[in-house]
Amino acid sequence: MNVLVTGGAGFIGTHLTRRLLREGCDVSVLDNFSAQVHAGAQEMASDLIDHVQIFRGDVRDRALVARALEKQDVVVHLAAETGTGQSMYEISRYQDVNIGGTAAILDCVVNRPSARMNKFVVASSRAVYGEGKYRCEREGIVYPGSRALHDLQAGQYEPRCPMCHSVCIPEATSEDSKLNPLSFYGLTKQVQEQMVLMFARSRGYSAYALRYQNVYGPGQSLNNPYTGILAIFSNLARSNSPIQVFEDGQESRDFVYVEDSVEATWRCVAAETGSVEAMNVGTGQRTTVLQLAEKIVTFFGNECQIAITGAFREGDVRHNFADMTKIRTAIGYSPRFGVNEGLDGFLTWVEEQTPAPAGYELSLQEMRDRGLLHG
User: For residues 26-65, b (16+ Cβ closer than 10 Å) or e, as one string?
Assistant: First the structure.
C-alpha cells in the first residue's frame, strides 16, 4: 500500500509514519516544516529520513501536491494550522492552510482521471462540536452555544441550557451531535471534514474524518506556545514557574495518548470496507485542567505554584469528551492508555528534552491585545 501523509513530519504524523512502515507500507510525506511547530528541526526524525519519500513544501502548492499524489493508494491529511486561540486572530492563515490546503488535494484528486487513490483519512477535531452534548434536568439533551460574557465575568463557568437557561451537565459527545464550533480553528475543521466526506461520496472512494480529542505524547512540540496544554504546563513546571490555570480549573478535556490516536488512524487506513464516516478518537474519559496541572507538578517534584486565575479566553469550551461507541463498533478501536500511564510516558520523555524557550506569556499577551483573553 502506498500512503501519502501530509504533515507527516509533525507530532502525530511522525508516530503514524513509523506505524505505517512497520505495517509494510511505502510512505511519502508532504510537510513544510513550519518553524512554529518544528523550531530548528527542518528534517524528518533520524530513524525515518532514509525510509520515506519527502515532498518538502506547502500543502496549498497544487503542483507539489500533484507530484506527491502520484501512485498513492491512501492519503492521510494531517497538515493544518492548529490552536483555537491563535485561530481567532490569524484568520486568513487558518483559512488558507486548513481549507485551501484540503481544496488543493481534492482538486488534484478530482481532476486527475489516472489517480488511483481510493481512500482519504482527514484529521478533524473535537473542536467541531463546540461545547458538545449536555443534559438539562428540564429539557433533556441540549447543545449550549457560547457562554455569556456576564456569566464568565461573574465566575459562572458552566454552560446554560439554551432553552430554560439553567446550568446543565456534560455528557459524552457522540458523532450525531450538533456541530457548533466556537473557534475559527473548529470551523475550518468542520469544513475540512465535510469537503472530504462529500467528495468521497460523489467519487466513490472511502473516507474517514477522525475527530481527535486532545492528543498528547512523546514528540509533541514543546516550542509551540499556541497548542498543547500539557506541553505548556510541563515547560512551566520544569522551570519552576507558576502555572496559571484559566477559569476555576474545573474545565475538562478528553486526553488521548498519541499511540492510541495512531492505532485508530491505522485501522482506518487498513479497513477493507468502503465506508464514508466521521468518528471520534479519544478515551471517553474527562480530566480537569486542575487535575492535569497537579499531576504534572507532582511528577517533577518541585514547588511550582498553581494559580487559579479566573481568566477566560474567547473560543474556549468548558467540557468536551468523546462517546466512543461508533468507532468501537466500526473498526474495533478501544484506547489502551489511561491518562495516568500516558502522562507518565510523556513526562518521562519531556525530562530528556532540552528546555524549550519561553513563549507562552507572549502568546497570552497577543490575545489580551486583541480582546480575546479576559482577566
Answer: bbbbbbbbbebbbeeeeebeeebeeebebbebbbbbeebb
3-state secondary structure 76-141: EECCCCCCHHHHCCCHHHHHHHHHHHHHHHHHHHHCCCCCCCCEEEEEEEHHHHCCCCEEECCCEE
Residue 20 makes CB contacts below 8 A (sequence gap 6+) with: 3, 5, 27, 266, 269
Calculate the average pLDDT of the chain: 93
Q: How far apart are CA 55 and CA 250, in angstroms?
A: 43
pTM of the model: 0.95
Instruction: Choose, from 157, 185, 257, 360, the residue flagged as catalytic.
Output: 185
Q: CA geometry: angle at 201 spanning 195 and 203, to 5°?
A: 95
DSSP secondary structure letters along 207-254:
EEEEEE-EEE-TT--SS-TTS-HHHHHHHHHHTTPPEEEPTTS--EE-
Burial (CB count <10 Å: 0-12, 13-18, 19+), residue 303? exposed
- Give me the domains of the chain, ranges plus CATH numbers: 2-133+172-374 (3.40.50.720), 134-171 (no CATH)
Known active-site residue 185: yes
How many angstroms from the chain centroid is the CA of residue 136?
28
**Lowest pLDDT segment from 32-46, 125-139, 305-319, 333-347:** 32-46
Which pLDDT tens digit goes with each residue over 226-239? Answer: 778 899 999 999 98
pLDDT at 114: 55
The C-alpha cell that represents 249 in the structure block: 480549573
Asked whether the predicted pLDDT for residue 123 surpasses 70, the reply is yes
Give the residue among 14, 109, 119 at the shortest CA–CA distance from 69. 109
Q: Strands, DSSP E only, in 160-217?
A: 169-170, 206-212, 214-216
Cβ distance 253 to 286 under 8 Å? yes
**pLDDT value of position 274:** 84
How far apart CA 66 and CA 325 sit, in angstroms, is 37
d(CA 245, CA 293): 8
The Cα–Cα gap between 85 and 103 comes to 24
